[in-house]
Amino acid sequence: MTIDYSERIPNNVDLAEDRRLRRALESWQPRFLQWWSEMGPALPTQDVYLRTAIAVGREGWAHFDHVALPDYRWGIFLAERDPGRRIAFGQNKGRPVWQQVPGEYRSELQRLIVVQGDTEPASVEQQRRLGLTAPSLYDLRNLFQVNVEEGRHLWAMVYLLHAYFGRAGRDEAEALLLRNSGSEDAPRILGAFNEETPDWLSFFMFTYFTDRDGKYQLGTLKESAFDPLSRTCEFMLREEAHHMFVGTTGVDRVVERTAQLMREHDTDDIARYGGIPLDVVQKYINFHYSVSLDLFGGETSTNVANYYTAGLKGRWQEERRQDDHLLTEAVAVVPRVEGGRVVDVRLPALTALNADLRGEYAADCATGLNRWNRILAGHGLDPSLYLPHVGFNRKVGAFAGHHVSPDGRVLAEAEWAAARDRWLPTPADKAHVRALMRPVHEPGKIAAWVAPPRNGINGRPFDYEYVHL
Ligand code: BYC
């Protein structure tokens, strides 16, 4: 199914056939472009070597070329429809999937789509100033690729709101451009999307940990009985993979450079040699992982039980699970704090689905830690990086209001206050990282705190002119 690029809004949903919808989206488009010019990348550029979706099939879906950022063709791309698709879980299991929104699930579906849609422009806002301090043109290009695709993911959700939710949907689409990351009056909906992304270590951590939450949440919405949502998320997941690649290899390259400097100078204290000390890397991991865990909601949630039973939001890889896909009898084990300790409690699996998804996510996150420790070991250093306990630094769910150490001990307030600076980035750590952030905008050159990538983009060399300033 190819994409029609002759239209003002590129799409593969036959927008030309639906004049009302097309007009509604065409009137939202200039507001999106206005938002992009005000809240999108702050660094002016001539053009950027970007990939643009040209088809939604598995093979060869992307085209690479230099594009002026405001001319990027944001559009509406849904994965191919499977005419025989049936609902895989919940009380409607086995029935054909829905092509329209059932009245009884309208508000829940709208809410899920709005929450998802809200995160996409939020991340562009958070990353807005990073171009000014990019460590290389290669990294600058990756930042902008992530940004334009998050912008496209906003389009994906706005299309659903406009096409299926009438006036209320159009109002919500409007509001997605009015809330802003970190705003006092109208903040973004979820906590992590109001945090700053002030430096490139934060950006790599964000694309590793927070974009990975995106992968898992989109994975559950891909299971949805509402077929247009499922197909939208399926294609978004394909774009999302690059964002996590940016995070994984970005942290790889920081750890690599840190290890080189530790070896070269035979010390952990590499700040004075222009590197990011390993303990600071660990603190950033602790922060970004814990903030991202909050994005899964509470361990016990009636919202998620209702979503599942109704067929709105499934589990990660629902169809590969070997159970009844109803979960009315099933039990799950979930951690919580009791009597000053973290204990496991048995709960109905249905209300514990946020914890189930979080478990899948945590196991995936651990693969990065293995990679980074292998890099350290390759330099003859202790493989000492770790993921903190799920209870560490949490603001949402069973651990909110408790202080839990990275190794899972419940601490008194004073113990936490005394140790906190060893576990989370301090103002001094952040100031050091920020001081290293000086732009390197010459082809083939790179900042001294990060190693160059192994490969360029789309077979191009590292010294390719990925961005024309
Ligand atoms: N911050 O029943 P509970 C991505 C609220 S990232 C603020 O435990 P539920 C991306 C909650 O709304 C993926 N509020 O939660 C990544 C509820 O409010 P009400 C984004 C929070 O509903 C990088 C109350 O607390 N997609 O795509 O089971 C770059 C009780 O909560 C938070 C989605 O999240 C929080 N962290 O689950 C770009 C998917 N957590 O009902 C993009 C859609 C909870 O009392 N969203 N609350 O008013 C959902 O599936 C669910 O809404 C959540 C929460 C998983 C977020």
UniProtKB/TrEMBL annotation:
<dbReference type="InterPro" id="IPR012348">
    <property type="entry name" value="RNR-like"/>
</dbReference>
<dbReference type="InterPro" id="IPR052703">
    <property type="entry name" value="Aromatic_CoA_ox/epox"/>
</dbReference>
<dbReference type="InterPro" id="IPR009078">
    <property type="entry name" value="Ferritin-like_SF"/>
</dbReference>
<protein>
    <submittedName>
        <fullName>Benzoyl-CoA oxygenase subunit B</fullName>
    </submittedName>
</protein>
<dbReference type="GO" id="GO:0005829">
    <property type="term" value="C:cytosol"/>
</dbReference>
<dbReference type="InterPro" id="IPR017635">
    <property type="entry name" value="Benzoyl_CoA_Oase_BoxB"/>
</dbReference>
<dbReference type="GO" id="GO:0010124">
    <property type="term" value="P:phenylacetate catabolic process"/>
</dbReference>
<dbReference type="GO" id="GO:0016491">
    <property type="term" value="F:oxidoreductase activity"/>
</dbReference>
